[in-house]
Structure of Radical SAM core domain-containing protein:
Amino acid sequence: MTTYLHRIFLVSDNDKDPIVFVPTLHRAYRVPREKVDSIPRFVEANKALPQQSTPPDYKFTGSTLFLTNRCNLACIYCYGEFGLKKNMVMPLQIALATAEYILRCAVELKRFQANILLFGGEPTQAWDILKATVEYLRSRATVLGCRSRATITTNGLMETEQARWLAAQMDSVTVSMDGFKAIQDVQRNRSFDRVFATAREIYRLAPTKLMFRATVSAMSVSHLPDIVRFFGENFPCCAQAYEPLFKTGRAKKNAAATQPSTDLFFEKFLEALPVAHQYGARLKTSALNFSRKSGEAFCGVAARNFMVVYDGRVVACTRMASEDAEPVANLFSYGMYDKNNKFLCV
C-alpha cells in the first residue's frame, strides 16, 4: 500500500495546551504541552496529498483591489483604521492595468477566467473607479475571449441605486454585517437600519448573489446561533461567513473590541450548523475547512495572493494593506505598480 507524508503544524493557543493540526488529513488534536517535543514534522497515511496546479511565479488570474482607504463607517475593530478622514483613492490607471494583467495571464495560461474582488476601505466610496473597473473587465474579457468574475465586499452603507447597480452587475456581493441590531449597532457604528435595507434590496433583485460576512467578538460569540437564525429568517439560502475578531488596527485601542474564546467560538459555530441547515444556508469560517480540497497553506500569504493597494503597492495579506495601522505591513509587500503600466517585484 502506498503511503504519503502529511505535514504536521503546531498551533499555540495562548495559555492552553497547543493544537496539532494536519490540514491535508482534516485532523486537529489538543496535546499536553509536555508532549510537544516528541511530535514529528510529518505523519504517514495512505490518503494521497491534494494535487494542485500552480501557475508560474507572478502569473495571476485573480486580484483583490483596495480601491480606497476611505470608509463611511468606523467599526470598533477595523484592521486598517479606515474612516471618513482617509482620502486615498486608487488611480483608474492602476485599476485598469490590474484587470488587463490578470486577463492576459488567464488567456496565456489557458484558464480563460479572470477574477477581481473589490475591497477597501469601503469600495463604494470610490464609486466611479469601481464602475469603470468592472465595465473594463467585462468589455476586455469579451474581446480576449475570456470569462470574467467581479465580486465585492462592502459594509452595505450606500444609496439604493448603488445597491441596485451591484445586484445587476456583480457576480457576488458580500455584505459585512455582524448580526441583528443590538450587535451590529455596537460593533459597526449604529449602521443596522441602513445596512439591513441595502441587503434586503440586493436580496430582492439577486438573492443568489448575496452573502454575509460577520466578525465575532467576545460580546457576540454566545449569540452566534441566534445570529445565524437572524440571517436565515431574513435571507434564506444566503451563505454566511464568520471570523473571530483579532486585535489589529483600531481593535488594539478599543477595550470593547475583545477577541472571543477560541473554544467558545468553535462550540457556538458547530452549534449553529444545524440552524443554518434549516434555512438552506452554508456556513464558513477560515479557521475550519469543510472542503475536501485542503492544502498546507492556511491562506493566500503562503500561496498566491495578488492584492493591489490604492497607492500601487502589491501585498500578500488584506490585513497588511494599511501601513499606518500595521507597523509590519511592509513585510507583506512584494511589488509595486510602475508608471510604465507594469507591476514590478520588489
User: Anything to note?
Assistant: The mean pLDDT is 90. The chain has two domains: 4-45, 62-345. The chain has seven helices and 16 strands.
